[in-house]
Design a protein that fits this description.
Length: 334
């Protein structure tokens, strides 16, 4: 698919160091081998070396060009524990707890990123989102001026009629459970900026609801209306509209009928859902029923590149999100 090819080629043009803490996961080991072979990234796998090598042997994965690090035995563990203790002692973390956590690949990998020994962090194939991003929230933290971490998926539809030739961004499908209007507005703006910077799209952002332009009255509709108002005020340069139903956002003839005069209706390529429940269900339905390729969740707002895989991720999914994570090492793409 064109966008996937573009992302991989862009990452290949300047391979970055990528830490993959889930070295005991066969998909991750195979993906690391692919990324090293294709020069998409310079991967570091974390875990027990014998376990990683055994998995690679069983799976036929060539680990040439892949660094393998065991956090439990690495000489940097004491240094990282001391640095983490300094960062977290105000939260009651003592030296013994800091040392214990540095034996955990998720925390050790986060410290590799924190100390600039890698350029990006990718996990989640075998861990819940909360476990994946907790160390990053504690250590990497949001970029200056960022009010909230959020996420989006790049959806590549085989039927190219909707979005931009079948390309859609959906937010926030992984992080914010019940965002207030201001946070929804910021999620929409951030995702629109990423649509342009990462995918080369001219963003057209639809804030979704069960109502289109006041066709229904409810406090949930009012929340989306307020999100649209705030987003337009904060980013007057962007094409933003709503609230609108999904068909009004995506289908030209329906958009024309339900929201005449809108620059977004019927042509949206960025969809902002009202909450995590709707967003997560929505992207999975599109992925499974429409056969769409789902790249993500791509996290936005961290001070350094951190991404969280779906636990259903395939080897290709890991490679694709690895490419995106490496591209985010460019500050303009975080």
């Amino acid at each position: 698919m064109e966008i996937i090819t573009r992302l991989r080629e862009a990452a290949r043009s300047k391979p970055r160091r990528l830490v993959l803490p889930e070295g005991d996961d066969a998909r991750t080991v195979k993906a690391a081998a692919v990324m090293a072979k294709e020069r998409i990234a310079l991967p570091t796998l974390l875990g027990v070396e014998k376990t990683i090598r055994d998995i690679a042997g069983r799976e036929g994965a060539d680990l040439s060009g892949v660094e393998v690090v065991d956090p439990a035995k690495d000489p940097r563990r004491a240094e990282f524990a001391a640095a983490y203790h300094a960062l977290r002692k105000h939260k009651g973390v003592d030296e013994a707890e800091a040392d214990r956590l540095m034996g955990d690949p998720l925390f050790f990998g986060t410290m590799l990123l924190h100390t600039d020994q890698v350029d990006g962090f990718l996990s989640g194939a075998a861990h819940a989102t909360a476990d994946t991003i907790r160390p990053a929230l504690q250590v990497i933290k949001p970029a200056p001026g960022v009010a909230a971490i959020s996420s989006f998926f790049i959806m590549v539809l085989p039927d190219k009629k909707l979005g931009d030739g079948g390309l859609l961004l959906m937010a926030d499908c992984a992080i914010n459970i019940d965002p207030a209007p201001r946070k929804l507005a910021l999620i929409g703006i951030s995702t629109a900026r990423m649509a342009k910077a990462l995918c080369g799209l001219e963003p057209r952002v639809a804030f979704l609801s069960f109502s289109t332009m006041g066709s229904a009255q409810h406090e949930l509709v009012d929340r989306m209306k307020e999100a649209v108002r705030i987003a337009k005020e904060k980013a007057p340069d962007l094409a933003i509209d709503g609230e609108m139903q999904a068909d009004a956002a995506l289908v030209p003839e329906i958009g024309l009928r339900k929201a005449p005069g809108s620059k977004v209706a019927g042509r949206a390529n960025v969809l902002v859902f009202p909450d995590l429940q709707a967003a997560n269900i929505g992207y999975k339905l599109v992925q499974r029923l429409a056969g769409a390729e789902a790249i993500g969740p791509i996290l936005q707002g961290f001070n350094k590149p951190v991404n969280d895989l779906s636990r259903g991720a395939s080897v290709d999914d890991i490679v694709n999100l690895g490419a995106v994570t490496c591209l985010q090492a460019d500050p303009s793409l975080r």
